[in-house]
Batch of 2 targets.
Target 1
Amino acid sequence: MKSCKPCNPPAAAGARAAPPCTGGAAECAGTCAGAGRLESAARRRLAANARERRRMQGLNTAFDRLRRVVPQWGQDKKLSKYETLQMALSYIMALTRILAEAERFGSERDWVNLHCEHFGRDHYLPFAGAKLPGESEPYGQRLFGFQPESFQMAS
DNA sequence: TAGGCCATCTGGTCCT
DNA sequence: AGGACCAGATGGCCTA
């Protein structure tokens, strides 16, 4: 494909506005000399592009499913992919911790008391959304410790 | 307008 | 040979 660069429109990349496969390798094969051999290469390129598109769509579908099961703390803006992964990590670690604690305490009642006594007996709220007066963050959010603004790139 | 996020194209590499 | 996966490049859209 490299030999055909000159007639390959630079606008091929970022073609969301001009979706599947305008110009690029296919067009190139039709206009360059020796198009016969290039034609099959162009066909393969287009097929590879389509596969890559499908693959990325599958990946995005998976991200959407992950977003739906991960806490969002009332954020109206949807989590970015990076934030989704970070949140999932925090979520899993928090749940793991909770399970470990639940095993340490003999009964469910003991464990619930440990976590929920400060909510008051008559108005226990689901812990993830529960917020005490004067607290800036819900209990669950503090438990998970995920802050979209504050995470750092792993080095 | 700059910066963040994203979709797509592309070429390289590895695997079957 | 062809498919899957990956990373870099590029351009569009959106928001502060």
Target 2
Amino acid sequence: MLQVAFIRAHKEKVLQGLNVRNFKDAARQVEEIIRLDDQRKQLQQQNDELLARGKAMAKEIGLLMRAGKQEEAHERKAQTAELKARSKALTEQRKATEAELTQLLYNIPNIPHPKVPAGTTEADNIVAKEVGEIPALPEGAKPHWELIEEYDIIDFNLGVKITGAGFPVYKGKGAKLQRALINFFLDEAEKAGFTEVQPPIVINEDSGYGTGQLPDKEGQMYHVASENFYLIPTAEVPITNMYRDVILTEEQLPIKHVGYTPCFRREAGSWGSHVRGLNRLHQFDKVEIVQIQHPDKSYEALEEMSGYIQSLLQKLALPYRVLVLCGGDLGFTSALTYDMEVYSAAQQKWLEVSSVSNFENFQANRLKLRYKTADKKTQLLHTLNGSALALPRIVAAILENNQTPDGIKVPGVLVPYCGFRMID
RNA sequence: AGAGGAGUGGCAGAGUGGUCGAAUGCGGUGGUCUUGAAAACCAUUGUACCGUAAGGUACCGGGGGUUCGAAUCCCUCCUCCUCUGCCA
């Protein structure tokens, strides 16, 4: 959520930014926000005045009672009735105004960084970098959904039986490969200075609001109705929410965490033939890195995180490219996002395996995540996160790219983790 | 899950209807003293909103209510502790 003060101070910048996102009706909404905020201020001022008078009267009544002047006290009491009624009305108006204002603010996405290119769809994303050789597969190379059946390592039908589509069962070497990847990613992150956490994978409503899944995106999460909890769509939610309503000192910065969790996504309406196999699931594993940074250093941190994620892909020897997301493809809460895509050679497709973003203070504003400056002012921090990495598509690419007539070669860095060199 | 108890400032802890944003202690910060340090002493020390400022308002787990007036009374939710039960 943007701060009203920021919108007021940088109206042109906000409008330009929203334009990069192809956000409709921006000018009117911005004006409306400012108008509502003015109204809010005015209502509060009026009400504060009434409350101050009421408070003074209550004190007088107390003194009169003590002095035994019952009659005078009763006269005063009668006078407070009107004050109370007016104050109540003003409070209601103020709350209504605030609700309307918040609703509008929730609707305004983050302002893109100047680097973000204009554009409407993923076709307008900029390919910043392409690394690694695309392997030339032999004749008859198979897509991963055939390979997993052939080697019996991941079973979709069993998952359907137990739960439903998109909840695969990993078996034998398939399960071990999962575990190896998770441990490899966690160990690497630890070496890069990220402290591991194991957060809950169900969250309450407050946390959903904190990172922006709520309101409006509840349809993308599984909901535990009996407790009003949600299954996390990403570890970003619980990990970032550890710092909800927190005021840090500058010395504590940066905060760097890594966490492995399963992730749950309903993906309502986004199912289709193009999402076969591991390309899109309802439950998948992901190692996530989260960073909380000083506003002056957040872009430095973004580059560092991007570099770190790329180092993982290089160690896994997967060909990848880095995209700078355009305004139309940029997530609601993000100011700048890089997507990392690996090439899955049998599908002949680039698959997104990581998305690393700087949210600047957009999330921090909702979270009330702040720090104290040297001169004791409280200021919003910047939050960043990135997948490092999401497993299923990495597995898809490994299976497809490393297939040989004798089986699938496991990337060297994973061998110590899984204990075998080949899936055969 | 049942019975009982409790949630107050960074921490500890007083306050059970009136001048309480809240005693006191510890901690933090600044200062005095000192060659320096410690000790002692003095001052200061929450968050948010409104206001150019002076100042005002709100917040004592969250929400609602009673009252002229609520940290204090009532309702509700949450959390923690003790005992009983259940369980990986």
